[in-house]
Amino acid sequence: MVQKTMESVISMMKKVELKEKNAEQANMEAAKGGAVILDRVEELRQMVQRAKEANDVHAEEEYGEKAILST
Predict the structure, then answer these.
(1) Is the pTM of this model over 0.70?
(2) How far, in Å, CA of 58 to CA of 55, rounded?
């Protein structure tokens, strides 16, 4: 009886250890995924900034051409 109980306890401990390792792995993967998302957000922010700057340059050129044509 005691031996069965010990085997059961040992088996449960192994299952708990495995679940803890799986949980730790999942946390690491989630953290890594979060970092990837943040990197992509930064890339997109920079793309928007460059597009805005290009649009501003184009708007200035249009304004200058318009001013020349109206004189």
Answers:
(1) no
(2) 5
